What does this fold into?
Amino acid sequence: MGCDMRLYPECVPCMLKQALEMAKLVTHDRKVLERVLRAGLGILQSERWNVPQPIVAFKLFRKVSELIGVEDPYREIKRQSNRFVMNLYDELEGIIESSKDKLMTAIKLSIAGNIIDYGTGRPFDVDETINRVLRTDFTINHYKLLREDIEKAETIVIFGDNAGEAVFDKLLIEQLGDKKITYFVRAHPFINDVTVIDAEEISLEDIAEIKEVRFGDWDRGMSIDEAVRFAKKSDLIISKGQGNFELLSGYDAKIYFLFIVKCDVIARAVNAPIGSQILLLNQKYR
Amino acid sequence: MGCDMRLYPECVPCMLKQALEMAKLVTHDRKVLERVLRAGLGILQSERWNVPQPIVAFKLFRKVSELIGVEDPYREIKRQSNRFVMNLYDELEGIIESSKDKLMTAIKLSIAGNIIDYGTGRPFDVDETINRVLRTDFTINHYKLLREDIEKAETIVIFGDNAGEAVFDKLLIEQLGDKKITYFVRAHPFINDVTVIDAEEISLEDIAEIKEVRFGDWDRGMSIDEAVRFAKKSDLIISKGQGNFELLSGYDAKIYFLFIVKCDVIARAVNAPIGSQILLLNQKYR
It folds into this structure.
């Protein structure tokens, strides 16, 4: 049993806003934007709302892609995010290697990387975020349990979140020791979430096996059910970001959720204010 | 000719968010909130979008009222706003009377009052706002024209905006000299906009004739067309707030618009950043 993470009422206007922002990356033609909105209103109305928000958002965003005629409007933003964080790689590695608890620092940086999320429409500052995250304690902190589980694990599955952020995950993977790592990316474009193209751009395949998960109908990748079944065969599951928390926290699976709280809905769900750093193991496995 | 203030794409998710916030003033029952959202999605989809945003919002908010079973969910908030500013009345009057340019100070305070708007969901601080507004220059400033027109006018029509803010307008009216003032309130509840009940709560009828304007079908009040026709017979028209700017700026009428920019859509329309104080006369009348 996990949190009740089916779509909240507040997610409905928020998803519509995101759909509009997605379209505006490609066009400012009022007619196209209105077509996107009307289609979005229709999809939101016809969908059932007893599923996690990303499941509905996936259908909505696919329709937007179709209407604006661009499969992956965040492609260039993702490329820039990847490049931006790759340029920081040695510096970030230095921060980890010179720290007292390298694993803790790597986890904290991996959470800091979660701020790189164009999906929420909030501005961010990477340097400032890194410093703040390193100075600040977790609001929910199951680090000790995670550390023990990492030590015992031979196989680890990580559910990746955003492009750019995935570079921080690469740094974390390097601190996990000699394990077999599987890293899930999205099988399809979904805002700025990490896809196999991003994994290639940051050479993630050098240290992890890349697998794809899909949120709905798509011509490749595992369904979420399949991905969770696969992940449960491993010794340890780590989930990055709010979206994966929404998708995975309802499953009966021992999962460590690492993310920064970015909206009121999630803040209420985990009872921690916006901006909190969360390292959360599902209740029944503590 | 005025600004193109028909509903912008960005208004669509924003109106839906406001509809949800309105419902949440009365209930947190998920079923009711979902019913409100689904009805809202339907209304937004079926309406034409070539009209000002408040026209569509009116229909949306009426439906919300019906579904939550409360005609005016902002009633208590409006009452508190009125009382709050009435308690500041003598202090505010003192600020005006001791200032060098009393009319200017009264106008500035009347614009400061425009920050009292629960509709946008932003927090506000009245004292801080008053001080900031008094210190800050108008971003768009047709004060000299307005001052001249006030001196010449015998009859003045004011379109009121929010409850609470209307108390500031009362202070302004006192500085206008011996004129015949007509003050338009909403004929129906519309978020925290001023209605005839608010006008009574602050005894506005002592210094102005109160008239009602409606945004759509309603059993009393003038339509916007009728209100503008009426207002054009007076010597001077003053419009308070963003909502009235959206409703009235398309009319061929000499109107002074007084407001604080509160959202990106209006910021773009008047080419001034959020938070700007605007004292704007329609272009063709300058």
Chain A touches chain B at residues 9-10, 12-14, 16-17, 20, 30, 33-34, 36-38, 41-42, 44-45, 49 (CB under 8 Å).
